[in-house]
Amino acid sequence: METRKLGNSDIDITPLIFGTWQAGKRGWVGVDDDEVIHAMQAALEAGITTFDTAEVYGEGYSEELVGKALGDRHERTILATKVFANHLKADQVIEACENSLKRLQTDVIDLYQIHWPSGAFGSEVVPLGETMGALNQLQAQGKIRAIGVSNFSRSQLEEALTYGRIDSLQPPYSLFWRGVEAELLPYCVQHNITILAYSSLAQGLLTGKFGPDHQFPAEDVRSKNKLFQPPLYAKAQAALEHLRPIADRHPTTLGNLALAWLIAQPQTTAIVGARNAEQAVENAKAAAIALSPADLAEIDAISRTVTDHLPADPVMWTFG
Fold first, then answer.
1. Per-residue CA distances from 209 to 31, 107, 237, 283 (Å)
2. What is the pLDDT of residues 131-175, one digit of tens each?
3. For residue 130, what are the CA distances in angstroms to 122, 126, 160?
4. Residue 320 — very low, low, confident or very high, per pLDDT cuts 50/70/90?
């Protein structure tokens, strides 16, 4: 699989990145540890070398599984993780990084990201300069190679850049969720900041596997996803029917068509999870799909039948 530079760093990442939120189990149902471990290993063998996790996914459990799956394969992998909004004081950042290093079974984290801005989810407000100071210190010590941010607005990203180099932004971005394109995408292109798009399949909606009447259990995070609520869910189902002929032409799955569209956008890579090895191998095939300008325009028009009706709030879930 081709690789791309991560921002202005010397790190090479794949356009498809294995996401591991589901490996933490909290907020997901029906996830098996062994199957997720095999999925990570299968993804690596299929050419996906870049893996994204976070300390908050299952309170470190996802990082532990990444360590178990890839601990003896570090020379072939790029590891990205995140520090949560409640650990943004300088000493907390340092401690969180040390804990993540242990769980990931590694001496260096390739990309260390601020998961949510200070103050998110009722967390204490910490000056961004303090957090960035700790991250710069970790980078100088060789414990992390690059610094990224996640769920930041343009103004927050601009402020972060005043304290050091930022190589990536991780926002929600998919065919059905495109708010990043208004301000953040042009800014990232201008400053050579790589976008790591999360929920790149709209939490599975873009695969087409959920029918019009599908209901998620309350403990599944997707039960709170705005795209799975009326009237957006019906609009998404109609859009999927219009996308199917394009997928058939290539020929590929609906999910891989959506991933191919996403990684064709400027500066954009796609984080995509998998529950088992079969899904991981299938996802990797999206990197080989070549979409023509006409394809991209047609997909764009279909996409907007959903995204033109999205709320202005950039958060995808009604966590309440």
1. 17, 40, 10, 15
2. 999 999 999 999 999 999 999 999 999 999 999 999 999 999 999
3. 19, 7, 11
4. low
Three-state DSSP at 254 gives: helix
Residue 78, H or E segment:
strand 78-83
pLDDT of residue 212: 87
Ordered by start, the domain boundaries in the chain are: 4-211+253-289
Residue type, position 221, single letter? V
Q: Convert 163-190 to b/e letters by CB count within 10 Å (16 or more is b).
A: bebbbbbbbbbbbbbbbbeeebbeebee
- 309 CB neighbour count, 10 Å cutoff: 11
Residue 275 DSSP symbol: S
The fold adopted by the segment(s) 4-211+253-289 is TIM Barrel (3.20.20)
Left if phi > 0, otherwise alpha if psi is -120 to 50, otherwise beta: which for 230? beta
Active site residues: 57
Contact 201, 274 (CB under 8 A): no
Residue type, 51: F
Which residues are 144's β-sheet partners? 109
For residues 141 and 109, is the Cβ–Cβ distance under 8 A? no
| Cα–Cα distance, 34 to 173 (Å, whole number) | 29
Choose the weakest-confidence range: 36-50, 82-96, 214-228. Answer: 214-228
- Residue among 297, 296, 294, 269 at smallest CA distance from 283: 269
Spatial distance between the Cα atoms of 128 and 125, rounded to a whole number of angstroms: 9
Residue 146's SS3 state is strand
